[in-house]
Amino acid sequence: MIWMTVGNSRSKDLTELEMLSEMVTGARFKEILLVLSWSEMMAVRGCDDEGRKRSSISPVTSPKNITQNREVSKLSAIAMAADTLPPLIAAQLNYLLTHSPHSVKVDQIWSGCKNSNLPDRFTLLIPFCLDYIKWDVIYNAQYPLVAPDIIFAAEDDIFHPLPFTGEAEGDVQTPKSSLCDWNSKDPSRLLSLIHELRDLYTSYQRKRVGEVDDDRLKFEISTIISREGIEMCTGGGIEKAEEVKFAVPLLDMDLNKLVHGCPWRHQQKIYLQVVYPVIRKYSSVPSAPRVKLVSSSELKALFSIEDVKLPPWLEGMCLAEYLPTLEETLKTQVLEAVASIGVRRHFIEALAPLFGRPIEADPVFCRKATVLAASGVFTFLVHFFLPTQFPKQQPVLMLQSSQHFNSQGTPVMSPVLTDYPWSPRWEVSQMAERIFEFLVEECLNFKKYCNETLLQQR
């Protein structure tokens, strides 16, 4: 913490701390002051354990190093289902949302009876080919032991996934469906049903793509069909299809295991979306497909696919030729992103000798840290936001007052600060020192900004 004045006696130290506690209305800082030990009080005032003066500018050591960000739980579809659906149906839905390897979402829940307050049906958003398909799951609240009906989208009117058990084509028997011997008391049955239908839907879409009259598409499919996890779909009917989309999983590596202690519940993947325009017989030269990298939003904490420069698609190139070069580049950048976590962690550790221990820090990806600082009796927080490209890209700083609040009751914040001395070639200790020196002056400007903000509200 930046502290501009230093007391000369123990009684004065306590008096100013008590006064500071009264002035600071932020609940977090009040809690911090309540648990300060004597040695920590002396650290606040720049003195040693005997009350002797140490320096004219010294850090405040926070009483507690909070190494994890507290995640605020949100109202999820799981909780909503448990509160509104009949118990047996809720158990099925909760199990699906909790245990599915796909990020299945609930779009809406409603009742099949106009005069009933007991909902018994819902719409699922199921990930497929880097998009979502909507399926309505129809239970009957009056007969909760009966298996549900599934209603597919109107454009999939020819999708008939579950023929009657025992129907045969020649001597081949149809596999047994999850709907057979339905057990409503087994919460995993809906999960099994949805996964079975999704697998059948994947095969259905692959068959439709294969029926599109385009020689280039047929060749592309033949070269990558053996690749595990690839999905494809048509944009419209087979006769009117204008384009065909491919979702190609990249990197044969477990991204979740690369980051120690990562909070990801679903398996993280990076995909290449390839969109081929359908070539008619009368067309001349086939145009290059549109390509784009896609990943889950959670992966952005580690690695931003927007920083990847896609290799050019050369004339006459096929997808099987394009993928190896892309994957090699992508793998290198992902491993560099994992290694940069350690660099960011060392930078956050380098803040402690100058600012005191951070009161908050991101322990997994080391993307954020917050320290408590003061100039005289003006106390404020310094938020550090570290980019994935650190140290090539410098941290973004933001100051937050502990004593000034706007008309909505929220603390006054500074604009983002990036105009300070920085070089990616410096040692992390020098980076922290230069930021500290910058903030010694900048905190005075911020205090003036806070006071002007309050005057404008009057």
Which SSEs are present, and which pair or pack?
Elements: H1 10-23, H2 27-34, H3 38-44, H4 77-84, H5 87-99, E1 105-110, E2 121-128, E3 131-138, E4 149-151, E5 168-169, E6 172-173, H6 189-210, H7 215-224, E7 231-234, E8 243-250, E9 270-277, E10 290-295, H8 319-355, E11 360-361, E12 368-375, E13 378-385, E14 396-405, E15 411-413, H9 428-457
Antiparallel strand pairs: 1-2, 2-3, 3-4, 5-6, 7-8, 8-9, 9-10, 11-12, 12-13, 13-14, 14-15
Family: Belongs to the BABAM2 family.
Organism: Tetracentron sinense (Spur-leaf)
Protein name: BRISC and BRCA1-A complex member 2
Structural write-up:
Its main location: cytoplasm. This is BRISC and BRCA1-A complex member 2. Keywords: Apoptosis, Cell cycle, Cell division, Chromatin regulator, Cytoplasm, DNA damage, DNA repair, Mitosis, Nucleus, Repeat, Ubl conjugation pathway. One of its GO terms (cellular component) is BRISC complex. InterPro entries: BRE, UBQ-conjugating_enzyme/RWD. This protein is α+β, with helices and mostly antiparallel strands. The protein folds into three domains: 146 residues, no CATH class; 118 residues, no CATH class; 125 residues, Ubiquitin Conjugating Enzyme (Roll), CATH 3.10.110. The longest helix has 37 residues. It is globular, with a radius of gyration of 30 Å. The chain starts with 9 loop residues before the first helix and ends with a helix.
